[in-house]
Design brief:
Elements: E1 2-3, H1 9-15, E2 23-27, H2 39-42, H3 48-55, E3 59-64, E4 67-72, H4 78-84, H5 89-99, H6 107-116, H7 120-126
Parallel strand pairs: 1-2
Antiparallel strand pairs: 2-4, 3-4
Length: 130
Amino acid sequence: MSVDIDSYDLDVYRSIKLYHPKLLIIESGRQKYGVLSEHSQHKQLNSFSSIYNVIKKKYYLIFYNGNLFFLNKTHFSEKHIKDNYYTDDEYQFLLHCIYHNYSKRGFFKKLLIDFLSKSKLLIKLIISYK
């Protein structure tokens, strides 16, 4: 299931009571990591961290590209998730930061990005994401 309605995505997710899809995709705003912002409370887009904090109870975060991709915990084992995906939400956010507009970058910048992406610490040293 994909929720992408520009602003009220988290409210729509909260309103769903009977349906719990295996894969959930939900759009987030571009606020910095750790910022808690919800449209219904702050009149801004729902932040990555606000969405993650609500949905992590029932779903594993497996990917972020402006949309958060989650797998349902009742359908996938924790071992399967940890063996196949990056499960650290901060690392997912950082990877999005450095890979955003990747296709528009030159060869050497792509090499540098690919090198940096191997280490959460290196990414944190070179970008201001909070």
